[in-house]
Each structure stands twice: as structure tokens, then as C-alpha cells.
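FAQ: What does the model actually see?

It sees only this:
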Amino acid sequence: MKKALIPIAVLVLSACSSSKKDKPATESTQENANTTTTELPSTSESTTPKSNSVVIVEGKNFDLNGSILVDKDKKKLQAGAPYRGMITSSNGPDNEGYILRFVFDTKPGTYPVTGISFTRGKEDKAQQFGGLLGGEEKLYDSKVTLTECKDLGDNGTGGHRWSISGSVENVTIPALGLMLIDKTANHPKEIKVDKISFTGLTFDDNAEEMLQKAMEMLEKNKK
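And it is asked to produce this:
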């Protein structure tokens, strides 16, 4: 999977303005204005992003925000699962985060995990379980269950945009070998992830083609 995607988007800016002329206040209305005060309710909305992923580790729930990168599985690890997905999620209260890789198709079902990792802690107390990018890419016994695959329609670049939701349960992840070198750090040899769930993660099924077109446009603009 490519380490980074160059998003293609069209930014539409619109502005509108209106003006109103106030009528001069009459003597009675001026008197009312001086004697009556009305408080309007606040209409501001919270800008805090909503969690779209929950990880349960050692009985503790952590609300995280994740995203997914998807491309075609050129290795064809699993018949009937032509896509590779990599979910990254982080920014837990103690730096908790995970990477989950799996192959799948754009329909509900059960699909194999191809890599998983979990991190927590900061600086000298950081703990890493599994490979930095989910470990070796292969079919593991653990399964991802996709409960929803929603076609959001034509993405305007020759493909479709999708939204998926699902979960994986009861995964034991061994500690990264380097973490066990320092015997004084008391790093656990493994960690049990009770459940990872994700909701409404979106992707384009032709992301590679979109990236290629973006690169061609950049090259063209350099000339």
C-alpha cells in the first residue's frame, strides 16, 4: 500500500451578502427598547470531532478517530477479496493507537486480517505491539467482520466512494522485539485487544488511479 495519497478535490467558494435598512425607531418602540432586554439562545455548535473507532484493551474503552487507505491487492492473498485496507487510528489519552490491515470486498462479510499493531504510552514509557505498519503482510487467523459496505455513488473520477463499518475481536499481539531488549522496562510480552470497531470510514475504490492522475498533473504543471 502506498504510504501517502495525494487527495484530489475541488474547492468551491461561495459568498453571499445582504443588507437591510432599519426604519427609524418611534418614540414607543424606543421606550420598549430601553426597558426590555431579550437574551437569544446560543447557536454555536461544538467543533470536537466525533469518534469513529473504539478499541477495547484490557477491559478499558478508548474512543479514537481513524481513517482508511485502500488499494488493489496485487498479491491476491484471498480469493474474493480484491482490496487491501489499512486503518490507522491514534490520539488516545495515553497515546493509544492501532493499525489494522485486512483484505476485503465491498460487501458485508468476514475477511482475514493481514497485519495488526497497537501502541500506547509516551517517550520512555512507550510500548509497541506488532510491527510498526501492522507486521508482516500475510493471512492471520483473526478476522474482520464488515457489517456495512455502503456505496456512496460516483466519485467523479471513474470510480465509486464507499463507507464501511465493522470490527475485529479477541486479538493477541506480541510485543515488538526491540521493546523486549531492555529488561528493566518491564514491557509486556504481548497484549490482548478485546475488540476494535470502526464506523463510517470512507474510501475511493480507484484510489491508485486517482493518485496516478494527480502525479501526472503535477508533472505537467512543472513543464
